[in-house]
Write a structure and sequence with these properties.
This protein is α/β, with parallel strands linked by helices. The protein contains 12 helices and 12 strands. The strands form 2 sheets. The chain has a 6-stranded parallel sheet, sandwiched between helices. The chain has a 6-stranded mixed sheet with strand order 7-8-9-10-12-11. The longest helix has 17 residues. It is globular and about 55 Å long. It binds guanosine-5'-monophosphate (5GP) and manganese (II) ion (MN). The site of guanosine-5'-monophosphate (5GP) has 14 residues, from strand 11 and strand 12.
Length: 345
């Protein structure tokens, strides 16, 4: 059966729908999650919930909107409620993650659920076998874009972006903007077309840009200056790295989401080919990797950091003591593995 027709039938027949996204949700995860949630609850009048693996960072709390109050839960604040919601759903969407494992805290309940499962995602190597219906495209800017074009094919919208619920349009424009780094990366002709249709439909791009880029606490800029000024190192291979320790997180009163974009900055240096940003957590480092064309951030994250993502933007984790003995060994690990990575090419 045609995928769109299949999707339309599944939504029509479902009585309880849940949407899950990847752990540490970013603008694309929350934008696509909110975009679809608002369509399912608003346009289709369904009992729909967005179930998040973690709390929404303050920096992105503007996305879901008052329209969706009571329709968003997260595992950190309400583990029992989140698991119960997933177990009792008959249709589940996974957005912006290529496998259940990327949902971390929700992985077990998603696996155990016998609901019909739909994947909408733009990452490399999707785990298609775990889903009943898959919308996967990697040559596209974002999950928000893939969701947008998929929704446009539904008879409810029939290609008319102005018939989308306003919150949906706003949220998808937000994820499109953050995942492309404000139209700097992963931009395709369809990306601008989507933006054009949404702006034509009345989405206030200036308001979105203000929320994303001009609404941080002062300490975020101070921390940025400190990381670039004091912490950034560049190797002779062209690897730039910064390590944000727990100590410095406390010193700058760091909150989740406030280092968004830091990893991109070292790419501004001419001879830097790859940039790595490490954030220390309880017994692991969160790893963000970015690369210039010709270098695969995905390959580095996959080979050395238990992760993956996209060719030029990827991430992963380094556990201690499994991958490195202690947090203090992170720098030596990055130096050694990035050198091997470039040497082996
Ligand atoms: P970010 O650096 O912005 O956290 O993530 C960049 C990209 O890498 C995103 O597309 C994200 O989904 C992916 N990514 C981040 N962390 C991980 C991870 O731990 N595992 C995998 N497979 N992908 C990740
Ligand atoms: Mn994404």
């Amino acid at each position: 059966m045609d995928n769109i027709l299949n999707l339309h039938n599944l939504i029509g027949a479902a009585s309880r729908i849940s949407i899950a996204v990847h752990t540490h949700p970013d603008g694309d995860a929350l934008g696509s999650g909110t975009g679809l949630l608002t369509i399912l609850a608003g346009t289709f009048g369904k009992d729909a919930m967005l179930v998040l693996p973690d709390r929404i960072p303050d920096t992105l709390s503007f996305i879901t909107g008052p329209e969706n109050e009571g329709r968003v839960i997260d595992f950190t604040s309400d583990p029992e409620g989140s698991v119960a919601r997933i177990s009792s759903s008959d249709l589940i969407f996974c957005l912006d993650c290529n496998s259940f494992s990327r949902t971390a805290s929700l992985e077990e309940s998603l696996k155990a659920s016998d609901a019909t499962k739909v994947l909408i995602d733009h990452h490399l190597a999707p785990d298609t076998g775990s889903f009943d219906l898959v919308f996967s495209q990697t040559e596209i800017s974002s999950t928000c874009e893939l969701l947008f074009w998929t929704m446009m094919e539904l008879p409810e919208f029939a290609g008319d972006a102005s018939s989308l619920p306003a919150r949906s349009a706003y949220a998808m424009m937000t994820g499109l903007t953050t995942d492309t780094n404000n139209f700097a990366n992963s931009v395709f002709p369809t990306t601008f077309r989507m933006a054009s249709l949404l702006i034509g439909a009345g989405v206030d791009r200036d308001a979105i840009l203000n929320e994303i880029y001009n609404n941080y606490r002062e300490n975020r800029l101070r921390l940025m200056g400190y990381m670039v000024g004091e912490k950034m190192k560049i190797t002779s291979d062209g690897t730039a790295y910064m390590i944000l320790s727990r100590y410095d997180q406390e010193k700058f009163d760091f909150k989740q989401g406030e280092t968004e974009g830091f990893v991109n900055m070292p790419l501004a240096v001419r001879n830097v080919r790859m940039s790595i940003f490490l954030t220390e957590e309880e017994n692991w480092f969160r790893v963000s990797v970015r690369s210039k064309r010709g270098t695969s951030a995905n390959l580095y994250a996959k080979t050395w950091c238990n992760g993956g993502g996209h060719e030029q933007a990827a991430g992963g984790r380094l556990y201690f003591p499994q991958d490195i003995n202690s947090p203090e060994d992170a720098e030596a690990y990055i130096l050694e593995t990035s050198h091997k990575f470039f040497e082996g090419r």
